[in-house]
Predict the structure of RNA polymerase, sigma-24 subunit, ECF subfamily.
Amino acid sequence: MPLLKSYEDEEVFERLYHQYVKLMLHTAYQILQNSEEAEDAVQTAFLRIATHFSSIEKNICPKTANQFVIIVRNIAIDIYRKKKREAVVPLLEETVSEDFRTDSLDEAMQALPQEMRDILYLHHIYGLSVKEIAKLLNLKQDAVYKRLQRAAARLKKMMEEG
């Protein structure tokens, strides 16, 4: 099923694309600092625009530019947040280097508050994903990411202090 309903819509869409693609790429790049991800954000934005074309301003004017920039900015922010969450990559692995003895890790883990210890165990020992932990503990995924990050940082600090 085509996203655009008529030949006229296709022509208008193409005209809007050529008018605003550079502005949208610039906007997405400012957020993501990565050309490929910015292009992905713009492509996703144009797919969204095509899907909701009936509610988009079709004239080349500041209102249309604002609509397009808002759409691509929100998509770029979503990509940035997702990338940032994925970058929280196991701080625990960084924390537990070969320099630390297992005894000191056990002691540090026991010294953590129960909530932090539980999150670390569920994720790193039992291998549950953040999504699974969120469902299990009835939390949002963002909350689980943040708690993992805080727990790993606290554990790292405790390990460094000895």
Observations:
- The two ends are 63 Å apart (CA to CA).
